Amino acid sequence: MTTIAHGTDTLTRDALTVLQPGFTGVTAPDWLLRRLGEGLASVGLFGRNITSPEQLSALTAQLRAERDDVLVAIDEEGGDVTRLEVRTGSSFPGNHALGAVDDVELTRDVAYALGRRLAECGVNLNWAPSADVNSNPANPVIGVRSFGAGPHLVARHTAAYVTGLQAAGVAACTKHFPGHGDTAVDSHHALPRIDVPAEALAERELVPFLAAIGAGTRAIMSAHILVPALDPIRPATLSRPVLTDLLRRDLGYEGLIVTDGMEMQAVAATYGIERGSVLAIAAGADAICVGGGLSDDATVRRLRDALITAVRTGELPEERLADAARRVRALARWTGSAPGSTAEPRPDVGLLAARRALRVTGADPFTPLTDPPYVAALTPVANIAVGDETPWGVAAELARLLPGTRTGSFSGADAGRAALLAAGERRIVAVVRDEHRHPWMAAALDTLLAARPDTLVVEMGVPQAVRRGALHIATHGAARVCGRAAAEVIAGA
Fold first, then answer.
1. Facing residues of 43 across strands?
2. Catalytic residue numbers?
3. Distance from the CA of 167 to the CA of which of 270, 326, 343, 427 falls in 20 to 30 A?
4. pLDDT score for 1
5. Dist CA 265 CA 293 (whole Å)
6. Distances (CA, A) of 394 to 387, 402, 480, 481
7. Distance between CA 12 and CA 39 in Å, rounded?
């Protein structure tokens, strides 16, 4: 049963209601349970909070014992960005693999299967899918999280993903409005800027969001990006012209608007999280996502008090805060009443999708390996959205198929020579990730192929570089199932 502490005034409850904080640990801390009793309506989960489906189910039950209509949110995109399987790698390929297959029914089935897993564990809001059009090959944070570089391809798969996820009873949160694809800067670190005319935005970035709205997405997440054609002063998350004028008025969107993480440097380093949160709500956002980095009661108190003070000083209209809180509660009501389909997901739909996403070029016919190879993983620094906890590559799956397989991770100017030395006489499988964005990686591959032309190459990022090697496999993502699909080809399984 929902409990609200006696004596908590309406303004305080509304200020807590619009927050989506995170926490540390695999059980809910006392401070979080207390805030739920005072009006907090949402909780965000990350990889640090999850060890197993059983533990996650117990955690969400603990939260609902305090407040039965709590929104439990998670950043579960499948593919490279997974929280459910953060320590093993995802059972589902990410968006880029699904876009490469370009079968909207398959995308819908994958999203439904993922949604069923979330719902069974008590999660009812997913900060996914990414509807960003990855039009800039140098993009350091979107990449394989995008369905592709074509707006209409991205649009049809975004709509299919939203439909599949919500059929499982889990609210979709389509991101990152108005589109993070044409950036060369990661908003976790700095403020990206997109300098294109409004007409170009309408023809490219906005197309997938219109499709998501048409599919009934229950939430949309804003991007911490500056788009001068829309607002020359403030990033989208803090911009009334972007959130209220464009998204609400022009695109007709009625659902919840959630901010991207407020502790990301694009906002935190320029406005600070307190002022940023006030400006976001004033601009038209309804929920403040925080907790990826700042995950304690002090952060919740700071943001609650900043919102209350802004209302009392007249900086933030009280009716705007109340409207935001009403939208949060409306989404909670939807999740409480959405039964979700009881149809069983297609068996092994994630692996099926990963296999279909492979693009294999080179030796024809290819003779599968029978002796255990050496897997040289040319490893870039992972972006914050992906994190460095999640294993990737093909070594583990090849070791299962070809016992005795050895592996090593290499980076930097001497990566190629070091990998050659480590491999010895074994056949080399070189695994890369976005070779086109890392000159050192391309140079290492040059070194390997010059010395060992029979090297097999597996590209697990966006396959923009020239395909080379005795065999080249593009997986369109680094999820565990993508590695398994590639290993099956290499070993002839």
1. 72
2. 188, 260
3. 326
4. 36
5. 11
6. 18, 11, 8, 9
7. 8
What span, in angstroms and rounded, lies between the C-alpha atoms of 4 and 25?
24
Residue 187 in this model has a pLDDT that exceeds 70: no
| Averaged pLDDT of the chain | 94
pLDDT in tens, 305-334: 999 999 999 999 999 999 999 999 999 999
CA distance 65 to 337: 18
Taking a C-beta distance cutoff of 8 angstroms, is the pair 324, 285 a contact?
Answer: yes
Q: Which residue has 């943001």 as its token pair?
A: 303
pLDDT in tens, 1-18: 344 444 469 999 999 999
Output the CA torsion sign for 186, 188, 190, 194: positive
Tokens of 427: 């056949």
C-alpha span between 169 and 361 (Å, rounded): 40
Task: Read off the pLDDT of residues 364-387 as tens digits, 9 standing for 90 and up.
Answer: 789 999 999 999 999 998 766 776
User: pLDDT tens across 231-272, in order?
Assistant: 999 999 999 999 999 999 999 999 999 999 999 888 988 999
Distance between CA 242 and CA 285 in Å, rounded? 10
Provide the percentage of residues in the chain whose pLDDT is more than 70: 97
What is the SS3 assignment for the chain?
CCCCCCCCCHHHHHHHHCEECCCCCCCCCHHHHHHHHHCCCEEEECHHHCCCHHHHHHHHHHHHHHCCCCEEEECCCECCECCCCCCCCCCCCCHHHHHHHCCHHHHHHHHHHHHHHHHHCCCCEECCCECCCCCCCCCCCCHHHCCCCCHHHHHHHHHHHHHHHHHCCCEEEEEEECCCCCCCCCCCCCCCECCCCHHHHHHCCHHHHHHHHHCCCCEEEECCCECCCCCCCCCHHHCHHHHHHHHHHHCCCCCEEECCCCCCHHHHCCCCHHHHHHHHHHHCCCEEECCCCCCCHHHHHHHHHHHHHHHHCCCCCHHHHHHHHHHHHHHHHHHHHCCCCCCCCCCCHHHHHHHHHCEEEECCCCCCCCCCCEEEEECCCCCCCCCCCCCCCCHHHHHHHCCCCEEEEECCCCHHHHHHHHHCCCCEEEEECCHHHCHHHHHHHHHHHHHCCCCEEEECCCCCCCCCCCEEEECCCCCHHHHHHHHHHHHCC
State the average pLDDT over residues 117-127.
97
Predicted structure pTM score: 0.94
- Residue count of the chain, please give it: 493
User: Do 136 and 181 contact (CB within 8 A), yes or no?
Assistant: yes
- Among candidate residues 385, 490, 381, the one with its CA nearest the CA of residue 144: 385
